């Protein structure tokens, strides 16, 4: 399984489409096979699902993502997990242990600074 995590410094970013980097993590069982930090190609509506699908990503983890983006990822066969926060290494460890839980999107869409 290959996962893309929205990344800002050593933390999960609150907004998937506007983060500066993505950490791509390839996991097999309870082991990390590869880990790569890539620069964000920028926020272009509808672009990221295809961009990440071409890289073999099957799941994205983030603090927040709008419903339209979640739908576009689903159309690409990519699962989305929102409502995740914390240090990147701790999130990956929880994922490996099967303890990672999503929740409400940390970036509400509408009258919110995340829309700017």
Shape from CA axes?
globular
Q: For the terminal residues, how far apart are their CA atoms?
A: 33 Å
Helix content: 10-25%
In the CATH hierarchy, the third-tier topology is known as: Nucleotidyltransferase, domain 5
Per CATH, the architecture is: 2-Layer Sandwich
Question: How would a crystallographer describe the biggest sheet?
Answer: 6 strands, mixed
What value does the average pLDDT take? 88
What gyration radius follows from the Cα positions, in whole Å? Answer: 13 Å
What's the level 1 CATH class?
Answer: Alpha Beta
Query: Which structural class fits the helix and strand makeup?
Result: alpha/beta
The number of domains: 1
How would you describe this protein?
There is one protein chain. Helix content is 22%, strand content 28%. It has 116 residues and is an alpha/beta fold. It has a single domain (2-115), classed as Nucleotidyltransferase, domain 5, CATH 3.30.420. Strands 1, 2, 3, 4, 5 and 6 form a 6-stranded mixed sheet that branches. A hairpin with a 2-residue loop joins β3 and β4 (31-39). The termini are far apart.
Q: How is this structure best summarized?
A:
With 116 residues, the chain is an alpha/beta fold. 22% of the residues lie in helices and 28% in strands. It has three helices and six strands.
Key terms:
22% helix; 116 residues; disordered C terminus; six-stranded mixed β-sheet; Nucleotidyltransferase, domain 5; 28% strand
């Amino acid at each position: 399984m290959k996962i893309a995590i929205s990344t800002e410094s050593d933390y999960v970013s609150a907004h998937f489409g506007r983060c500066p980097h993505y950490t791509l993590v390839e996991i097999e069982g309870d082991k990390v096979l590869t880990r790569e930090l890539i620069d964000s190609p920028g926020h272009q509506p509808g672009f990221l699902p295809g961009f990440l699908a071409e890289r073999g990503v099957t799941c994205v983890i983030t603090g927040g993502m709008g419903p339209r983006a979640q739908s576009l990822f689903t159309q690409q066969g990519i699962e989305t997990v929102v409502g995740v926060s914390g240090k990147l290494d701790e999130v990956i460890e929880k994922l490996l242990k099967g303890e990672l839980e999503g929740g409400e999107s940390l970036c509400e869409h509408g009258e919110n600074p995340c829309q700017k």
